[in-house]
Amino acid sequence: MTRARSGKTVLRGRKRLRKLTKGFVMGRHHLYRQSVVTLMRAGVYAFRDRRVRKREFRQLWIIRISAACRMRGMRYSQLIAGLQRAQVELNRKSLAAIAVDDPDTFTKIVELAKKHL
């Protein structure tokens, strides 16, 4: 009696795993057991860093807005407070883009915030 092997199924799974670990170096790509562990860890990092990226971008936008405000003689917190009182609903992403790309418009926004403080 010949031994039954689950050859095709196992090889298909390993092939799928190798495709997912494409770009990993050395044994992390070629060796099955090591690539399984590495792929799990990569998934954990990916899950965590999707949230970290959101934090970092918000931090970057706030830094850019703050720098642009200080050039116009105002603090970031004052700008945000003034915009809230003026009922301007611009988020930090768009404010940062305006501050970088269109300084004249940002100056008008700062003046509006000053007026409503």
What does this structure look like?
The protein is mostly helical. The protein has one domain (7-115): c-terminal domain of poly(a) binding protein. It has 6 helices and no strands. The longest helix is centred in the middle third of the chain and has 40 residues, at 32-71. The chain is rod-shaped, with a radius of gyration of 26 Å.
Task: Please report the distance between the alpha carbons of the first and last residues.
Answer: 89 Å
* Global Rg: 26 Å
CATH topology: c-terminal domain of poly(a) binding protein
**Fraction in beta strands:** under 5%
Would you count the extended β strands for me?
0
Largest sheet: none
Mass-distribution shape? rod-shaped
Reported CATH architecture: Orthogonal Bundle
CATH H-tier superfamily: Ribosomal protein L20, C-terminal domain
Class by SSE composition: mainly alpha
Whole-number total of structural domains = 1
Average residue-wise pLDDT: 93
* H-E string: HHHHHH
Task: List the total number of helices.
Answer: 6
Poorly predicted regions are none
Q: Helix coverage percent of residues?
A: over 70%
Quickly name the level 1 CATH class: Mainly Alpha
Write out key terms for the chains shown.
117 residues, mainly alpha, c-terminal domain of poly(a) binding protein, 6 helices, 78% helix
Short summary:
The chain contains 6 helices and no strands. The protein has 117 residues and is an all-alpha fold.
